Amino acid sequence: MIIVPGIMGSAYKNGVLVIDPILHTYDDLIATLVANGYEDEIDLFTFPYEWRNSNVFSANLLDAKVEDVKAICDCDKVDIVAHSMGGLVTRAYIQSSDYDNDVDQLIFLGTPHKGAPTDYTRWEAGKFSPDANVVDVLTESFFEAEALRNGYLTIFDYIHNRPILSVQELLPVFDYLKDEDTGIIREYPNNYPRNNFLENLQGGIHDLINSGVRIINIVGDAGQNTVEVVRVIPTDHPRFWEHGEPEGFGAIFGDDGLERGFGDNTVTVFGATLDTSISNENSSASHRRIPTTEENKIFKILTGKDSITNIDNGFNISPVILLLQLKSPIDFVITDPDKNKIGKNFQTGEEYNEVPNAFYSGYEADDEYITILDPLDGEYKIELQGTGGGNYAVLTSYISDQVSTTTEIVGITTTNQITDLNVVVDNDNPLDISLEKEVTLEILLNDIRGAYNLGWIKDTKTRDYLLKKSQDMYKNGRLDKRLAKGLLTDLKNFSKDRINEKAYNIIKEDLEWLINN
Predict the structure, then answer these.
(1) Residues forming beta bridges with residue 399, ordered by sequence position
(2) 335 to each of 111, 381, 421, how far by Cα in Å?
(3) CA pair distance 450, 453, nearest whole angstrom
(4) 421 and 472 fall within a common domain
(5) What is the reported pTM?
(6) 191-231 pLDDT, tens per residue?
(7) Residue 101: which CATH number?
């Protein structure tokens, strides 16, 4: 049996894809299957994939994965459990000319067979719903960081020009755009963003129906809280909202132009329902909860037996994510309030993995980050180690279904320089999350030298003045706060042709920390 995850259901660990180590969407299902007799990498497999790519490309890789599994199991066919967009990947394989008649049973979980209207704002403007859930906010955080790192000015540019084809391939192929002035819903595809991938998939659904695969399609219906219709108005924006801007999108009051109906909070019941000749079964779970709540049903479909043990750790019940992202040249390690560590061991080059339900991308990754599921209240200590000379940034985000906030701290480092940061988490007051850099005289001096090396301090005279005055602040190893305040005043009086805003802000924050601590 192979589990195929949905969008954001795979992540790179030191360049190797693993299945959802961040939100743990499939952990309970996998644990339940193992507890009832399946064995990892013997008859139970996962298929993590690069979800940013086209589902057609991912389907080709699924074909290869099925071949590998058949060789391991010495069998002719496999079963597949596919969640969300993973169902589209699986359909793209089975409905292709490359299909080898090697899937026996297929279970879809919350798959957007006809697309999802919530995807419209992402494709049209690189925007996520203002009341987006934790997965959407997490996706937006990654997209924003990836866009900047790869030289794109906006998420919209990144989605369209990388391109992230999976976003386009989730657009609905049914009527969902309503013109606000007339109240009439347009008829797809007239004046809609087109989804040729799903059009072809739906047009060839007879290939799925006649494939001989035994199919169960589980549709989530958690109530009337799923974007079903997008109510649009004309816009004169030169790049965004080509097919209409949601009325009042982002306003404090109102529905953001997003009208809601029945579904799993991500995919509508209509969008998830397959042809009537295929068995469609309902689940009362939300989109991310379906793999856990339907564990017994999945096991019974696959084996004909009831599961004896069902595991539910509650990973997908109002999850909270603490996300820390790096902009090089730095590596890092985090110590949580219980003294557990995750990140790079600076002494051995190995990795700490002591924090429960946390994930470290690895320091060999292009985009180094750490996620902590359901963080503890208290102080998280962060140690940064410079991997070269230059400026760095650390972004800290607290993300839940209710709130999202991000704070950033910037600095300058040199090779092997250690810088300490502190993040204080208060789950009762999440918007008060703070990120603070601990400053020493050495850090201050390195920031001044680094700012000069980067061209932020324009001449040696200014650099040397700041270095000397910084050293003069300390007498017998103790800071003279009067002299520190005097240097802060001097700093404010420097003209912009001597020191730029970036250098000014970093040195100012260093001095203020020393004065206050």
Answers:
(1) 321, 404
(2) 38, 5, 11
(3) 5
(4) no
(5) 0.92
(6) 999 999 999 999 999 999 999 999 999 999 999 999 999 99
(7) 3.40.50.1820
